[in-house]
Amino acid sequence: MPNSKTYLVGGAVRDHLLGLAVHERDYVVVGSTPQALVALGYTQVGKDFPVFLHPKSKQEYALARTERKAGQGHKGFQVHATIDVTLEDDLLRRDLTINAIAQAPDGQLIDPYGGQRDLQAKQLRHVSQAFSEDPLRVLRTARFAAHLYHLGFSIAPETKNLLLAITQSGELGTLAKERIWQETHKALASQSPWVYFEVLEVCGALQQLMPSLAELLDRRPHALNTLKLLSESSTTTEVRLTGLLYQLNKPQIEDLAAQIKMPNVHKALSLSTSNHQRQLRAYTELDAAQKHLMLSNLGLIRSTDSLDDLLNVCQAVSLSQEPLFGWQSPKQHIVNDLENIHSVNPVKLMAQGFTGKGLGEELKKAQIESIRSDAG
Length: 376
What we know:
Layout: E1 5-9, H1 11-18, E2 26-30, H2 34-39, E3 43-45, E4 51-53, E5 60-63, E6 66-69, E7 77-80, H3 87-92, E8 102-103, E9 109-110, H4 115-121, E10 123-124, H5 136-148, E11 154-155, H6 157-169, H7 177-188, H8 194-203, H9 205-209, H10 211-219, H11 225-233, H12 237-245, H13 250-259, H14 264-281, H15 288-297, H16 307-321, H17 331-343, H18 346-351, H19 356-375
Parallel strand pairs: 2-5, 10-11
Antiparallel strand pairs: 1-2, 1-8, 3-4, 4-5, 6-7, 8-9
């Protein structure tokens, strides 16, 4: 590519300027063609955009391109990527000014739309009015607000107006469920995930995309408190999300999971916590039969893989609901009860003539008695 130029763009430049860790690097290539990149060993990925993987690093290199709105939704664009598209043309189509800064190989920054100024002002501002053509940018802006909230960033008033306009356009309904989850998952992994839901609520997007959560936040203004607490103690996205979803009932959680293509691990932890967090928090006050039933329903008799996550959420729930009272984790009590349950040998019961359904009932009785005897 003798006449082409390659620039580092987007999040890598932004986060480097902010002093944050850079996790992935994306590049834009100006003045080249797909044929030239393929001839150099690059592999084209996807059909919609001219994006290529480097033959060694596997990092993404995209040809400089422009887009024109040609239909509804996130994919309703015609892409123009030829050697005459300039770097400035490419940067103009990006969402926020802080994501529209490029860096040349010699370190020089190319910033035609004031990204560095907005970094200093801690503003999330759209690059152009074309921002409102892509409904996915509502979710992306909410995610960046969550990513940078701890540094004092906020959304510029004029960009907030565009978020509202996109929401009112009805185009959010064209977003693929997988993309909604992808942005939500990234937001949950950010420094301040609750900000993502706050932004979506204010512009009306939450009501359209996750109506049960919108209703929850309307009914309980402090519903995000547990998520805030968990964000300090856990980086696990399913634990963080459960800090919000445990306040919904089973049908609401299942509906939401279908609406945004939530993975089973996130749904399962949310359902378990929603159904049993009150009992878990009061575990030592339960009788032996109640303890056994709950441990069975939570699947903890089979595996304790989810125990720490469940108790982590319960700790945050207790702190958010009763901040003046300490809560002692019942983990050791649960571990002891599980050891007693597993000490019951079904082979001995079979030797006494129990089989089939009768064996199961007798095994359950013996397990409950093992918990009761130890407590006594």
